Amino acid sequence: MAGLRYLENVVTLQLDMGKCVGCGLCATVCPHAVLVVNHREARISDRDACIECGACMRNCPTEALTVKAGVGCASAIIHSWLTGEEPSCDCGGSC
Ligand code: SF4
Ligand code: SF4
């Protein structure tokens, strides 16, 4: 599903640059190339491509990354693709 995009500006991914040590693990594990690391510094290159899988957060050794994995609009949309049901994340918007 690489290259697919979801709603804009709903992703919960956050990067605390003050905690990043530039190890590169987040960029290695991210399935959608949301994160890039250059000169030992991570940055979010394509926030709206994030599927909130949580892999970056789980692998970051310094807790520089946070994301509400498995909740929110992106998760609801993925669930609807898999089940054929209408997406619902209870955010009050329309997924
Ligand atoms: S939550 Fe998943 S898709 Fe989003 S940036 Fe982290 S590893 Fe990539
Ligand atoms: S895994 Fe964490 S510490 Fe390593 S580059 Fe990514 S954000 Fe920085």
Structure description:
The protein is α+β, with helices and mostly antiparallel strands and 95 residues long. Helix content is 23%, strand content 13%. The protein contains three helices and four strands. The strands form two sheets. A two-stranded antiparallel ribbon has the order 1-4. A two-stranded antiparallel ribbon has the order 2-3. Strand 2 (35-38) and strand 3 (41-44) form a beta hairpin. The radius of gyration is 14 Å and the shape is elongated. The two termini are 18 Å apart. The mean pLDDT is 84. The site of one iron/sulfur cluster has 15 residues, from helix 1.
**Structural class designation:** alpha+beta
Structure summary, number of beta strands: 4
Tell me the radius of gyration. Answer: 14 Å
Uncertain runs with pLDDT below 50, 5 residues or more?
Answer: none
What percent of the residues sit in helical stretches (DSSP H or I)?
10-25%
Largest sheet properties: 2 strands, antiparallel
Percent of residues in beta strands: 5-15%
Strand/helix succession = EHEEHEH
Architecture blueprint of SSEs:
Elements (H helix, E strand, L loop, with lengths): L13 E2 L9 H5 L5 E4 L2 E4 L10 H5 L5 E2 L5 H12 L12
Antiparallel strand pairs: 1-4, 2-3
